[in-house]
Amino acid sequence: MDSREEMQKVKRSIAQVRCQEHELLVWCNLFTGLVQIGSFGLQFLWCILHFIVSIWYFLLEVTHVVESTLISSGLLKNYKALDLGKLRYLAIVVGSEEAYQTAKVTKLLQWLEAIGMKHVCLYDMEGVLKKSKEAILEKMNNTTVFQEADENDKLLDQKHMTLEFASYSDGKEAVAKAANLLFAKYLQSANSGGDPDQERIFNEPHMNEALRAVGSGGPEPDLLLVYGPARCHLGFPAWRIRYTEIVHMGSLKSMRYGSLIKAIYKFTMVRQNYGK
């Protein structure tokens, strides 16, 4: 009897273990199913959000294209008469890769010339536009180079468009050259009888004069338009954009005349307070 009871207890124990294993397996399958459902739900939610955002940006792009087309066709009368009195100097910053698109850059300059812009600065980090200067000037009529223009007529000539070509070398390297020039003048003053122990203070006018002396003291742009993927000024000389408004215009490949007009119009309609 004892052996039979023990066998029955063993069988009952085995049955209980199998039952528990079955329950555990059911729960594991249920948990796995819930995880899969949750993962699928998150993926589905992400797809919905991505679709909504894509549709939103698509509608924005369509809106911009339609608006640009209406501006270009002259149907929006507000954009016909531009007051360029506030926009004396315009800077165009182009991404290094897109700077090789000389035809696009030339077309952009022709648009600006047709609008009535007289003073434009072309900038890219690697100096590609500087190397393409001759090719650009060949396709532009009544255009002079800023560095070659008369100092007194650079911002006063209304008959020609004045072009300035700048690159990253006009930034930090120009500051280093200007600092060396100021230091050389200080040594010359000390050697010519000045007090070598006297503290010399260099202020902003001194630095601006030194920058002009090394050929990097161009005017401060009122508006800076950036063409390219980056939403920054790409190393444009910082001391020249203290009060400059910066606008990202998108890729140079997809530039539109209406978008250019809109950016300039919005700038001319803004009241700027510089303080005292």
The topology string of helices and strands comes to HEHEHHEEHHEEH
Largest sheet: 6 strands, parallel
Q: What is the tally of beta strands? A: 6
| Radius of gyration from CA coordinates | 34 Å
Q: What assembly state would you assign to the polypeptide chains in this entry?
A: single chain
* Beta-strand percent range: 5-15%
Q: How large is the count of helical segments?
A: 7
- Which outline best applies? elongated
Question: What's the helical proportion of residues?
Answer: 40-55%
Regions with little confidence, pLDDT below 50 for 5+ residues = none
Question: Describe it for me?
Answer:
With 276 residues, this protein is α/β, with parallel strands linked by helices. Helices cover 50% and strands 11% of the residues. A 6-stranded parallel sheet has the order 3-4-2-1-5-6, covered by helices on one side. Helix 2 links the parallel strand 1 (90-94) and strand 2 (119-123). Helix 1 (2-73) packs across helix 7 and helix 5 (172-191) packs across helix 6.
Write the layout of secondary structure elements.
Elements: H1 2-73, E1 90-94, H2 102-115, E2 119-123, H3 128-131, H4 133-138, E3 143-145, E4 161-166, H5 172-191, H6 204-213, E5 223-227, E6 245-250, H7 257-268
Parallel strand pairs: 1-2, 1-5, 2-4, 3-4, 5-6
Helix pairs in contact: 1-7, 5-6
Considering the chains and any ligands shown, give keywords for the structure.
single chain, 276 residues, alpha/beta, 50% helix
Summarize the structure.
Helix content is 50%, strand content 11%.
